[in-house]
Amino acid sequence: MKTRHLLTAVAVLAAVVGLGASVADAQSSGWTTVVNDGDIMPGTAGTPFNSYNQPSVNGNGLVLFRARSKGAGEGGGCGCGGDAPTAEGGMTHGIYERDTANKNAPIARIFDRTSLVPAPNNLGAIFNEFPSFPRIAMTGTTIATRGESSPVWDYTLGGVETRSGTSGIYMDQQGVSPFTGMSQLGFLPQFSYWQVPGTLAGIKFDQFPGSPSATSDAIVFKGNWTDAGGSARTGVYYRTVTDTGGTLPVQRVADTNTLIPNRPAGSVATFGSTAPPTAAGRQMVFVGLDKEEAPTAGGIYLANLTPSPPLTTVIGIGDTVPGVAGDAHFSRIGESLSFDGRYISFWGAWGTATRTIELQCPTTGNAARRAYCLKVYPSGVFTTTEPADQGIFVADTVKHQIVLVARTGGDFLTFLYWVYSGKPPGTGGGDFEPARWRSSAFAAVSSTGPTFQIAFKGTKGNGTEGIYLASGPNPSLAFPVTVVDTTTPGELIDPDAAGLTVSAVGLERDGFRKGHLALAIGMSNADASVNWAGIYLTDLGPGGGP
Fold first, then answer.
1. Are 235 and 255 in contact (CB under 8 A)?
2. What pTM does this model have?
3. Per residue in 313-354, pLDDT tens?
4. How far are the Cα atoms of 94, 172, 214, 397 from residue 141, in angstroms, in the given order?
5. Is 450 helix (H, G, I), strand (E, B) or coil?
6. Structural domain for 326, as ranges
């Protein structure tokens, strides 16, 4: 008998005029359970899975995900609005995958908190945390994930023995051994290929915030570093790798010294903020802004994975918003971009109208983070605002067109989801982004030639939260299809969730590839005394790259 834990599940697929046969096909094909709370974590003596982040999937249905067991004093669930809680005492936490093209394929462990960190590692260090969701190449089996550990390298410098290297980007390909894609050891001569490019020799990366993106032969990532004068810097980079990591150097795409291409005339604005990029083939896209909280310049940029690539502006702050009446201009552009080599999905906002929201400090997850939130907000409540006018968009990088597929002001109240995440002061090892409230939108695009499908997360005015589907290139705002929402009966997603209702849904930017849609879904009964969760896949048609 499988024991039920926490999360919501659900799925209702409805064919709507103009959205094609693929939606109806999904109704008949149903859902595949990739993993749920009844499955045992590989490498453990009977420990069940308990919590899941949003998965990634490649074009062949190979699903990659971060998951954990129950930690001390914690419940379970899915990190459907952001990262799952940081690891706590005694729990198993790792990166896993399952090949859904083979219905008999087991869940495979890639890394967990017992895994040896790949070379270089002369200290026998093992992983202690995986701070962000892992990502898989759209084609092939290359995966990339961040990993944190105790120091990996012991060396003598100036007669002083020192230990270093607590954070990196780690990679895996089916059929080869895991390897290190990026490390903090770039300041050492033997590892100079990991140093920060475009600055003084020997400058290392301090941290790799967010989730790195993988292609079959490269990783693209955001890197934070400190210049020779002690100033904090950031940028987006790529590195071509082999199945052993190789020794090709990091290449800079843009950093805080790079002038913004579409900056206002006469301005000398540089990228004060860059977001973790997304890659497909030998191209990447990223959001770069002059000021993260109140941008006046910046936007979405496309670059080839070649040394010193020129930046192509896809859409900029201040550009006209398509599909919106009146003189509307983009004032905000979301960081999370889905990219399949042609189409880019993104969140954007316009106008000055706002709505006030109240956010509750987390009651589960990392204890130090919960305590710090309460220290900053003694009432446990953070009151803030978010744009009232928001939309989900798709940009066609071939035809240079942008279309609006969903917006607030009608059925939808918001596309933003807030999470309190980061590292509280004085806790843990390594350099993390500081603990604070962050918001993000969630959308993923899949295409075939000139047509695309986009799945996105939205909350309606009645409080229903779900994953919705639109298609293009000429979507109708009146007809988004509900894939799954918080009214969906659990048994429509997972037979083990009979009698429950979906309570949470999670989607990430690499969660929709060649028609394969992978979601984290949680389910519960009316009073949340019975809970269930997992990762599920449905096939919405042939989809795929351009």
1. yes
2. 0.91
3. 999 999 999 999 999 999 999 999 999 999 999 999 999 999
4. 18, 8, 9, 25
5. coil
6. 21-539
